[in-house]
Every structure is written in structure tokens, then in C-alpha cells.
Amino acid sequence: MGSTSDPSSTADGTSRRDLIKRSAALGLISVPTMSFLSACASGGGDDDSDTDTEGKTSEKNPFGVKEGTKLDVVIFKGGYGDDYAKAWEASFEKKWGVTSTHTGTQEITGKLQPRFNAGNPPDIVDDSGAQQIPIDVLYKNGQLLDLAEVLDAPSIDDPSKKVRDTLIPGTLDAGMQGGKVVALNYIYTVWGLWYSGKLFEEKGWEAPRTWDDFLAISKDAKSQGIGGLAHQGKYPYYINVAIMDLIAKTGGLDAMKAIDNLEPDAFVGSDAATAAVEAIYEVVEKGYLMPGTNGLTHTESQTRWNQYKAAFITSGSWLENEQLKQTPEDFDMKFLPMPLLPDSALPFEAIRAGSGEPFIIPAKAKNLPAAKEFMRTMLSKEWSTLFAKEANSLTILKDGVDSGVELRPGTQSAVEASKAAGDNTFRYLYTEWYSEMGTAIENASNELMAKRIQPKEWLKRAQAAVDKQAKDPESKKNRRD
């Protein structure tokens, strides 16, 4: 997911939600990737590069990739790193004879805005991070390629299907501008609770499916000097994962849409919202929070969780990659859908899920045929599996990881949870549509977790944020059916 205001998508290299190093095991790379990358530090697009990039089209080469040309690739080097892209580029060179100029950077705007302004953009860009060039700005300036041709091309894995028909439903929506898909949000993120399989086995705990079972484990953990729930206190975005998931799972999609659609009873007067915030506050009241968690950053809280100081933590599926260095080898990280409150409208398996990390092809890219083919290949099972292994995260490709491939425990559990959820997925849009409103709700949650306000006041403040946003005439342009 690509919100740059969220701490999980900042560009500090340790915090990216918006993920092993085993690409050779897949047989995708037969030569060292750096053999052709070592001289490609700047990604500046040399003037002496080939200008004739049009090759012959065929069934297997629908865009006319031309052997011997060059591809200029720029990747946001955040929490997911850029090794996956280097492996992609090596695979692409091997198949097509197209060499890549690779740039891995966190300074997307600084490095690329001058190039866009000069009409000399790269061929394909992972436009993400805190210095992302806003997609809507690029689109309004006519600087983005409509990706319809790529999405309507035959799938590499099944040529009888279009590429778009092989993707998880709804994942293209985040990249739309003016009714066109101009950005491919490539990474599929799931949100929920996380726990250590090792700790649970040692304690004899079973992953809870109900909120009562969750509280029982938290109570037992507390009696043994372990926190029940850790959260990233300095960034209340994370505890809102729990609150908002509980609202959606308890009240169903209508309760979620009421918030996105700025309804006057989105919070105050909502039975689902009341039940959800009271459930979270019970954790606070009963002392089940990990001691000190309210004052910690995301990585600090997550690291203490990795040290078995809490049973559960809230996060998205970038967590495993973000915590690679801090996670014990035998930790056995596991994903857990939010446990159910009584009389929930959605099943336990339902999860919040959506796409992030936008990849774009500039309208003035020099090598459009290769850029289109590169993006088409990104949506093959081969490259999707490679990404999962290199970056510890899922892509928007349905069943995008080869069976039999060994994934890290957290990634594997997210794969299994996604399959179990099926069509029972949901996603809030207010965080992308209304950042000011989102911040106000997060601030209320921060007060709640510190016991400075109680659930009734939280609901009042959250509703006030909704009502304020609803007065903005621009808000009427956003509506969920």
C-alpha cells in the first residue's frame, strides 16, 4: 500500500510495508546479476543509447522487444530492497538480450523529477516511498502511459487469458486515474495480528479464532510476565489495524463503507464501531498491553515482540521483511486474521487486503516495447515467485507463488491466509482519500491506548473527523457503492 504518511512506507530502509536471497534455487539466474549491473550506478539514460527500440512482434513477443537494446529501470530501495529487481533484470537479459541500467534509490523525486521535466524519464519506475512523485500529478501532466495494452496482453503463464484476468480482484483500482490504470500496484498486503509459532507451541496456546480466546491467551501471557498485545505506540496507525478490522468484521462491508462514505453514523450510532473500540479498550483496562508499548516506535515494539515480550502484535505483511535481522531463526512468524467478536457479519477467515507499491511506465520512455514486456513478465508466476522469495511478500498475481517453493514462515502463513479468505477480503479507502481524517482518528486511538479517553470519547472524536471531512465539497467525488 502506498501511503507515504504511514511510517511503514517511509524511506529509511528499515520501515517499508509498503520484501530470500535464494533466486538461484528457482533456476531463474544462471549468471551473477552484477556482471552487467556494476557499471550502472546512475540510471541517467545516456544520449548514445539506441533510439531504435522497435522489434518484430509475434505471438511470444507481443510488444516487439528488440534484442540489443537497453532498459532504464529505477526502483525504490526501501524495506523490500532492490535485489528482486536485479534478479528480474538478469532474467530479462537472458531471455531477450536487453541489458538494464539499474538504479536503486530512496530519492525518487530528487532523481527523477528533473528527468521527467526534461522529457528524459526512465523506462520503468517503482514510484514509491516518502519521496514518491505523486501519481495524480504525473497523470495530470500527461507523463504516464495507459497500461491497458499491458493488462490486455496475453498472460505469459496462460496465453488464453489476458494479464488483467490473472490478478487478484480489485488490486488494479489503486492505480486508476481518470478511469485509466496508469500505475500497477504490485505488492499484495494483508493486515492483521502476528504471533510466534514457537512461543505458542511452548505455552500450549492455539491461535485464537474468537476475541474471547484472544483475551484468554493475553491473560495467561500476563500471568507469566509476557505482554498480551504489542502495538507500535508512536504510530497509532497500527492499533487502528485492529480497531478497523474489528469494525469491518463485526458490522460487515456496510460498516466499512459507512466510514469511507463519511456517513453521519459511521462511528457514533454504529454498533460495530462501539463493539470494536470497547474490545480494544478492554485489553488496555485489563493490563494486557506489553509494558511500554505505547511509547515505542514500530521497529522498537516489533523487536521486543521478536524477543518474546508479547504474544501478539498488529501489522501488515511487510512485517517479516522489516524484522529480518531482529527475528530469531526459530521464531516461526505467523499471520492471524483478526479474531471475531460475537455475532460478526464476516467469517474469521476474512482479512483486510489490498495492493501497494506503484510501478509506472513513463509516456516518453525510450524503450516502450521492453518496458511493456518487463511489466508483463512481472505478472508471471516465475517473477512473482522470485519476488516472494527475495522480498518476503506477495504480489497481486492470483496464486502467484509456485507450489513447493520454500518461503519464510510469515510469508507462507500470509499466502495460506489469503487463499483461505478467498473473496472475503475488505479494504478501507479513507486512509488514501482523506489523510487529515485518518490522522485525527489515529490521534484519538493514541489517547485511547494511553487511557486518557474512553471508548465513548473515541467514537465522538472519530465521528467529528468524519463530519469535518464530509463538509469538504471535494469529498463528494469519492463514493463506494
Name its key features.
single chain; 481 residues; ten-stranded mixed sheet; two-stranded antiparallel sheet
Structural class: alpha/beta
Radius of gyration: 23 Å
The proportion of residues in beta strands is: 5-15%
User: How many β-strand stretches?
Assistant: 12
Order of helices and strands: EHEHEHHEEEHHEHHHHEHEEHHEHEHHH
- Ranges where pLDDT stays below 50 over 5 or more residues in a row are 1-50
Mean pLDDT, to the nearest integer, reads 88
Mind summarizing the main beta sheet? 10 strands, mixed
Helix content: 25-40%
- Distance between the terminal alpha carbons, to the nearest Å? 22 Å
Shape: globular
Number of DSSP helices? 17
Which secondary structure elements does this structure contain, and how are they paired or packed?
Layout lengths: L69 E7 L6 H14 L2 E7 L2 H10 L6 E3 L8 H6 L7 H4 L24 E2 L2 E2 L2 E13 H7 L7 H13 L3 E4 L6 H15 L1 H8 L10 H15 L12 H9 L3 E7 L2 H4 L10 E4 L14 E10 L7 H11 L2 H11 L2 E2 L13 H13 L3 E2 L3 H4 L1 H15 L5 H16 L11
Parallel strand pairs: 1-2, 1-3, 7-8, 10-12
Antiparallel strand pairs: 3-10, 4-5, 6-8, 6-9, 6-10, 6-11
Helix pairs in contact: 1-13, 7-8, 7-9, 9-17, 16-17
